[in-house]
Amino acid sequence: MTTISIALLVLGIALAGPGSRLLASARWPGRDPVGALVLWQAVGLASGLSLLGAGVTYGLSPLAGSLLPAVEAFWHNTLALRPWAGLRGPHLAVLAATAVLGGRLVGVLLAATVRTLLARRRHRHMIDVLTTPWPDRPGARVLDHPLPVAYCLPGLRSRVVVSTGALDQLDRDQLDAVLAHERAHLAERHDLVVLPFVAWGTALPWSAGVRRSQFAVASLIEMRADDRARSECGAAELAAAVRTVEGGAARTPITFAAAAASRIARLEAADPPMPRAARFAVRLAALALVAVPTAVLMLGLWPLA
Amino acid sequence: MAVLGELERAVMEALWAAGGPRTAKQVQQALPDRALATTTVLTVLTRLQRKGFVARERDGRAHRYRAVATREQHLAELMRDALDGAPDRGAVLASFLGGMAADEQEAVRRLLRRRAK
Fold it and tell me: Cβ–Cβ of B93/A151 closer than 8 Å?
């Protein structure tokens, strides 16, 4: 079981470190944002599974030669109110650390979900008192504010908000492109895609891999929404809208200015989507990433002949 | 539901325009649609109170309602949510955003921090 736990540990660290660095610096995600999003989710899931699996396997290894009987023995000890029976020193410490980490990941995800839902409800109430329905575009609401802003509030009772500042500066086609972009966010529930990465960013603020994933996922959902909007309304209109709203790098938040510049560049370059075979390979790789640690854990379930 | 939302907005506009506490009856008279029953206005006021937009105070036998914050303060809070919302927070997905200089944003944040204390 020690071999298995070491293998899982190596895999987990490799995915969280070099693996995430590799994916974050790759150029192809711009040509297949959905595939890249799936791959990021697989990297997150697989590295988490590997690291927690490594901890459990190592921690319980003194109890039995394989995972299943070891878990069984631990369960019996716990029921007898002596969960530490048969475990000493490093094993106990690793087990405790794994439990703390696992608990923290789950707890933070739950807390972030609740916090997000509450913040959203508050924001929706504000939208409903401060904005007026836009007669021309059903479902969209107009906010009387000079700043050019367009955004969406995701959720079951979603809202799309456009400011009068944006209405003044954008022409009809550009507005349609903006709305198509926001509707793509809502239709594909990009908020749910982002949520675990945001949550685990707060759970593990020191992890460079988590930070990288957070940034990559945030820009990938924008690319994806851009792709859908451009297929409906044309890339030129969308790029013009991004440029108009963003207004000038000096006057916008740094992250937005950088994101806007790279979005415009991507829309104008119009790289062809990845070939079908490559896209298939990306999804297969994602599946394999999750399957490998699962298989390694399974290996430890039964004693090897 | 949509109709109720529009009523909430109308009632808030009336309270903001009034600038001080008003009874449900007074709010009803200030609304553009005078045909509304005062009980309907009362229902809307109760909903707004639950949402934290309106506070109720007792004045003799009647209740008077006032807006908790000005329209501008709520607007500032809304804009701050939108500005802070992306790209790494989950509540709001803001993809088109611009025009506010960094120092203006900082001023809005400072204002909100002071209000929160």
Answer: yes
Q: Are residues B78 and B59 located together in one domain of the fold?
A: no
Contact yes or no for A175/A191 (Cβ under 8 A): no
| Mean pLDDT over the full length of chain A | 87
Residue A76 C-alpha, separation from nearest chain B C-alpha, in angstroms: 41
CA distance B23 to chain A (A): 20
Mean pLDDT of A116-122: 89
pTM for the whole thing? 0.84
Q: Do A149 and B82 touch (CB under 8 A)?
A: yes
Enclosing domain of residue B22: 2-67
Same domain, B58 and B111: no
B50-90 pLDDT, tens digit each: 999 999 998 888 889 999 998 888 888 888 777 765 444 55
Query: CB under 8 Å, gap of 24 or more: what pairs does A140-143 form?
Result: A140/A179, A142/A167, A143/B75, A143/B78
Domain count across chain A: 1
Asked, for residue A224, whether it belongs to a domain, the answer is yes
* ipTM of the modeled complex: 0.79
**Distance between CA atoms of A137 and A173, rounded to whole angstroms?**
13
Minimum CA–CA partner of A254 in chain B: B102
CB pairs under 8 A between A and B: 142
